[in-house]
Amino acid sequence: MRGGAGAGYLRPVDWLKVNRDNWDDRTRVHAASDFYDLAGFRAGACTLRPFEPAEVGDVTGRTLLHLQCHMGQDTLSWARRGARVTGLDFSAPAVGTARSLAEDTGLADRARFVVSDVHAAREALAGERFDVVYTGVGALVWLPDLVRWARVVADSLVDGGFLYLVEFHPLADLLGDDGRTLQDDYFRADGETYDHPHTYTDGPELTRTRSVQWQHGLGDVVTALAGAGLRVDFLRERETTLFRRYPVLERTGTGEYRFPPGHPRLPMLYSLRATRSG
User: Fold this and answer.
1) Which one in 28, 30, 35, 259 has a CA-CA gap of 20 to 30 Å to 73?
2) Using the 8-state DSSP alphabet, how is residue 129 labeled?
3) H or E segment at 29?
4) Which residues face 83 on adjacent strands?
């Protein structure tokens, strides 16, 4: 259930523990789910969205850091395209699953996985810098402080390296369950506590059901990155999303979902690239 703005807000040490416990539990469910289809990934499936490799470009021989990598499928998808990858996540069970996937897919020589909170990435990686920092969909809502996050990103890049971010668009979070009416406030500053018995995949109920999430406006993301000294190369808003988030959405020929013809459209995803200048 959703609390009101700021309802159930927890002290910093509490939200981190609550969210880590929640994601440790989610990993148990996700690893066995049809949604993540680990067997299909082991057989060669790629989990990157079609536009991602096109926007990032050739990664052969480049170093790539994936922050908040969960079970590592996107991370290893970049490894399959030739990158030398490092995945970082605060959930030890998720990292354990990622390491197993790397072994099972023959990618262990090009992939490593590290257990760490994203804010401590620099310490966990001993100050190593990368050609690309990648962050995939559904990551930023788990972070209370984008300014701190952006500094971690900037400090993790070599001169001329870049962040590539793909995220759910914050406007899409404002719709009610019918996908037709605005229900929420765009300008939410405080974390909100949720208590849901299920994660977003198929599978059994969770045993650790609470989480704390933050809404970040698009301006907050861009301003945090600019403040960390990164130059935004592009910001592209997209009318499609990855799953049927609202019943009104229709599946496209490429397997994505969009509002039907004649329905007012909102951006559902966005992609952003920002470079560290030398």
Assistant:
1) 259
2) -
3) helix 12-31
4) none
* Side-chain half-sphere exposure of 220, counting CA atoms within 13 A: 19
CB-side neighbour CA atoms (13 Å) of 33? 17
Angle at CA 42, nearest 5°, toward 41 and 46?
30
d(C-alpha 50, C-alpha 70), whole Å: 20
Topology given in CATH for the domain delimited by 12-276: Rossmann fold (3.40.50)
Closest to 7 (Cα-Cα) out of 192, 216, 260, 244: 192
Question: How many residues in total does the chain contain?
Answer: 278
Hey, is 31 helix, strand or coil? Answer: helix
The one-letter code for the residue type at 213 is Q
Identify the CA nearest to 3 among candidates 213, 267, 220, 204.
Answer: 213
Tokens of 14: 């509490």
pLDDT tens, N- to C-terminus, the chain (278 residues)? 233 333 455 565 699 999 999 999 999 999 999 999 999 999 999 999 989 999 999 999 999 999 999 999 999 999 999 999 999 999 999 999 999 999 999 999 999 999 999 999 999 999 999 999 999 999 999 999 999 999 999 999 999 999 999 999 999 888 888 887 888 888 887 889 999 999 999 999 999 999 999 999 999 999 999 999 999 999 999 998 888 888 899 999 888 899 999 888 889 999 999 999 97
Phi, psi of 65 (to 5 degrees): -105, 120
